[in-house]
Hints:
Number of domains of chain B: 1
Largest sheet of chain B: none
Number of domains of chain A: 1
Strand content of chain B: under 5%
Oligomer: heterodimer
CATH topology of chain A: MetI-like fold
Structural class of chain A: mainly alpha
Number of helices of chain A: 11
Radius of gyration of chain B: 28 Å
Shape of chain B: extended
CATH architecture of chain A: Orthogonal Bundle
Order of helices and strands of chain B: HHHHHHHHHHHH
Order of helices and strands of chain A: HHHHHHHHHHH
Number of strands of chain B: 0
Strand content of chain A: under 5%
Number of strands of chain A: 0
CATH class of chain B: Mainly Alpha
Structural class of chain B: mainly alpha
Amino acid sequence: MNQRFVAILSLVVLVIASFISLDLNWAAFFEPDALSSMGRFVTEFLHPDLQPAFLTKVLFASFETIAMSALSTVIAAFLGLLIAFKASGVRSLLNVLRSIPELVWASLLLIAVGLGPFAGTLALALHTTGVLGRLYLEAIENQTEGPAFALHASGASSAQVFFFARLPQAFPQLVSYTVYRWENNIRAAAVLGVVGAGGLGKMLSFHLGLFQMNKAATVIGASLLLVALVDSVSDSIRRHLG
Amino acid sequence: MSTAPADLNPPLHDPASRGRVIALTLFVFAVWEMARLTEFDLIGFIRALSDPAPRAFLFSFFPPAHSAEFLKLALVETWRTVAIATSGLFVAGLIAVPIAIILTRVLSLSSIGLSQRRGSFLSAVTKRILRSTLIFLRSVPELIWALLLVRVVGLGPTAGVLAIAITYAGMLGKVYAEIFESADQTPVISLLHQGAGRLQSFAFGLLPQCSDELISYTVYRWECAVRSSVILGFVGAGGLGQQMDLSMKMFAGNEVCTLLLMFVLLVALADWTSKTLRKVWE
């Protein structure tokens, strides 16, 4: 009870200190200027641009976004497997890869690769390698030792043990982790473009920059559709695995 | 004459090979196409790394910037990141709790058979609208909300706080409603039967059972909000992210390094805080 009191008190102090220390400008939100621009945003937003020429552009950007998310997941799965198989000593590297968010990776990589979907793909791949590598390692470490031991005992090499005992045993779980990360990556890929890394996000920040809300609405709608699509695909993959 | 050796050693043939070859071919083709679409160019990347500018940037990471002045700036920005997350989550809670109360079935009068048909139709429509609003709020990523809001309220923490408030209101509202729904309904129903108001029934019949779970979930979301809040800085919503963006644009690798370290420490600290706090309510 006492502990809870202290905890509640510290939460309250944290909230109050936060509000006091930030120079929040709530008035800006209710100024006539902001209100009228918000009203315009909303009305334009409710009339998305559905002209064929623009839709084609959105479709292409959607493909780019899907490609970014899927390719980066494939690369990360490959690297993650390699790590799970060979290099269980690289946990700290995995932690570094994982703890830096995709968006930060993307803006770091932009300096080397320049603007475009490639930087986004690399950024997603790096972050996801950190996540998947750790999940794969744990999945393989937590499995029963029987099959691997049996193969070892009958003289199989460590590569054979990995490919014929450990990998098949963990396979459903690995696939389920991988498609879960893909779901995550399509969401990330749709916003990475905001820092210049291609795809739908790039279109979005471009049109928002020009205050073309009807076009922005189309792009946001497209990215919501993409996310729903990938979710349903990955759901069916997972259900297929049982 | 011995029998043909083929009988003793049947050819090693994988019965599934055809399907596997087809799947592999399709996979390679898909990866190839995606690589083309994303302008994938690993050699170009490696070559670019040896260009003077990116190399200078990379080498300037070490040692990290550690002048007292910059460290103070970094600390202030780190606190602002925490403050944006905390304020945002608080506002999110203010939005989410009333919505969750409205959405809770047991608190409606129809749960004790006191509602007319027209009223229940209206309330069904209201609930449908509120539910879809929550879905919309949480399915648009906070970064996009921030991009929009920066254009309404200008650069700075206000946009960040609002973006977090909007997205997390969507998440908290949904989960709070689920927590209320899964609680034991009998105390509420007996309070309602005895003539207590709906808010009273909520406060004395439902809230006491759920408060631990509510706090625990909110603290977990706070940890996520701290992470989001760093990212929001990149579109100009203040805090650590904004400073990181500035330092990157000035190619000040040593500053970026310090800020990244700060970020990792901050996430670890938020993680620890949220774990400790949640243990108090377990």
